[in-house]
Amino acid sequence: LGAGNLCGCRGIYQLMERRFSFHGGATGEWRVLSIAAVSGDSLALVSKVRIIEGFDADASADWSLRGVTSYERYVTGDERVRLASVQPQLGRVEATRAALIPIKKNAEWWALPQDVRRAIFEERSAHIATGMRYLPAVARRLHHCYDIGEPFDFLTWFEYAPPDAKAFEELVALLRSTEEWRYVIREVDIRLER
Ligand code: HEM
């Protein structure tokens, strides 16, 4: 194999690492505490969620959702620096609670130009400014699925410690009251513990 091939393989490997599957069923590290539809159809009530790096099939799962981590669409350079200084890593031992919130936005949102979406997202809805007030309590990872034919556009994942559960409720309530959320047509709120 020449160096070019090795480079190619590494490219594929890096892409693999960005792919995640969430399988709802009877097995998995995360026990389901609740599944509630916020907008649109819910997902079947399952007892566990299994998270896998990569896209795999799980015939035993009641539902499977897939997403990829991606580049940032809206964050400014200044916001990126401030986020990096406070955001915690996933997998903290004390963070035994989690939320998986799959979200779909409507066609009107996706038809808007980038600058208008940014204005709604941050200048008018203060998504980042509000979210940042809940850091470092909440760790998060955003998965995109608009382009891969999934039922949702985003799989949002959050981890926090039980004492921060109330603050997390306050955060989701604040975000759901914003102009950004007027474009959300399907949202399922799944709470978990490990
Ligand atoms: C914990 C505090 C939070 C912080 C610091 C935060 C921060 C961010 C940032 C920086 C982005 C933009 C990424 C980009 O530039 O592409 C983003 C996107 C997003 N966040 Fe949050 N967020 C938080 C909580 C939440 C919560 C609780 C939800 C759901 C209830 C949520 C749902 C989303 C969604 C759906 C997007 C994608 C929006 C789009 O691209 O249209 N976030 N968040």
Polypeptide structure, described:
The protein is α+β, with helices and mostly antiparallel strands. It has helices at 3-17, 77-86, 107-111, 114-124, 127-132, 165-176; strands spanning 19-25, 30-39, 48-53, 63-68, 97-105, 139-144, 154-160, 184-193. The longest helix has 15 residues, at 3-17. It is globular, with a radius of gyration of 17 Å. Mean pLDDT is 94; it is low at 1-7. Protoporphyrin IX containing FE binds at residues 72-75, 101, 103, 127-128, 131-132, 134-135, 138, 140, 142, 154, 156, 158, 171-172, 175. Protoporphyrin IX containing FE is lined by residues 72-75, 101, 103, 127-128, 131-132, 134-135, 138, 140, 142, 154, 156, 158, 171-172, 175.
> Tell me about the biggest sheet?
8 strands, antiparallel
The helix/strand order is HEEEEHEHHHEEHE
Major sheet: order of its strands? Answer: 4-1-3-2-8-5-7-6
Overall pLDDT confidence: 94
Tally the helices. Answer: 6
Sequence-ordered SSE layout with sheet pairings:
Layout: H1 3-17, E1 19-25, E2 30-39, E3 48-53, E4 63-68, H2 77-86, E5 97-105, H3 107-111, H4 114-124, H5 127-132, E6 139-144, E7 154-160, H6 165-176, E8 184-193
Antiparallel strand pairs: 1-3, 1-4, 2-3, 2-8, 5-7, 5-8, 6-7
This protein binds protoporphyrin IX containing FE.
The site of protoporphyrin IX containing FE (HEM) has 21 residues, from strand 5, helix 5, strand 6, strand 7 and helix 6.
